[in-house]
């Protein structure tokens, strides 16, 4: 049990308590980023989409983007429509498969990404400044371990996290 001033905090060290702590920290971080990004006319999902495109050379299919940011394809479609209306991305037929669409960052999109990058880098440093280097490296390793444990399990779930019925599997199993 940790004491802070007159406030009494109880640390739940059970597996569920640990999971809830991780989830709550994520929610606080996501909300903080939403507030900060809003000051730069960005949202977290739009930032995630643009960052994913940026990290992948500026060109991906909508399905690849949805998979990378763990969102439903219809959510990504709405975000892409908005980004396209702003002129930061464009959709074009794939050179490899005319039936497939590629999302491509435009020159304006690269300009926006280059303008936001130093802002987000500084914001990241500020957010993480409360954690010393060794603990931060351990945290990164721990988060990687969680992802590596859970990602294979997601292959059996649909994009919205509901379990897909396998052939021969009883409904509700």
What can you see in these coordinates?
The relative contact order is 0.08. Helix 2 packs across helix 3 (62-69) and helix 3 packs across helix 4. By secondary structure, the protein is mostly helical. Strand 1 and strand 2 form a beta hairpin. The chain has a domain at 42-154: Winged helix-like DNA-binding domain superfamily/Winged helix DNA-binding domain (Arc Repressor Mutant, subunit A), CATH 1.10.10.10. The two termini are 40 Å apart. It is built from six helices and five strands.
In short:
The chain is mainly α.
Q: What labels describe this entry?
A:
single chain, 173 residues, mainly alpha, Arc Repressor Mutant, subunit A, 3-stranded antiparallel sheet, two-stranded antiparallel sheet, 6 helices
- Along the chain, the helix and strand elements come as EEHHEHHEEHH
- The tally of helices reads 6
Bulk shape = globular
User: How would you sum up the major sheet?
Assistant: 3 strands, antiparallel
CATH homology superfamily of one domain: Winged helix-like DNA-binding domain superfamily/Winged helix DNA-binding domain
Q: What percent strand? A: 5-15%
Low-confidence stretches: 159-173
Q: Kindly state the mean pLDDT as a whole number?
A: 86
Radius of gyration: 20 Å
CATH class of one domain, named: Mainly Alpha
Structural class: mainly alpha
Helix content: 55-70%
| E-strand count | 5
Quote the CATH topology of one domain: Arc Repressor Mutant, subunit A
CATH architecture verdict of one domain: Orthogonal Bundle
- Across the major sheet, the strand order is 3-5-4
End-to-end Cα distance:
40 Å
């Amino acid at each position: 049990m940790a004491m802070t001033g007159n406030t009494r905090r109880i640390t739940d060290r059970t597996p569920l308590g640990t999971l809830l702590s991780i989830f709550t920290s994520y929610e606080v971080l996501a909300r903080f980023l939403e507030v900060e990004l809003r000051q730069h006319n960005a949202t977290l999902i739009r930032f995630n989409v643009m960052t994913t495109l940026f990290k992948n050379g500026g060109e991906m299919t909508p399905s690849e983007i949805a998979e990378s940011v763990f969102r439903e394809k219809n959510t990504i479609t709405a975000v892409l429509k908005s980004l396209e209306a702003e002129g930061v991305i464009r959709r074009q037929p794939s050179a490899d498969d005319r039936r497939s669409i590629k999302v491509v960052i435009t020159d304006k999109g690269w300009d926006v990404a280059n303008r936001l990058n130093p802002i987000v880098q500084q914001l990241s440093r500020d957010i993480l400044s409360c954690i010393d280097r060794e603990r931060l490296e351990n945290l990164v390793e721990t988060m990687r371990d969680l992802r590596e444990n859970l990602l294979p399990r997601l292959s059996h779930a649909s994009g919205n996290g509901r379990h897909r019925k396998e052939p021969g599997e009883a409904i509700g199993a």
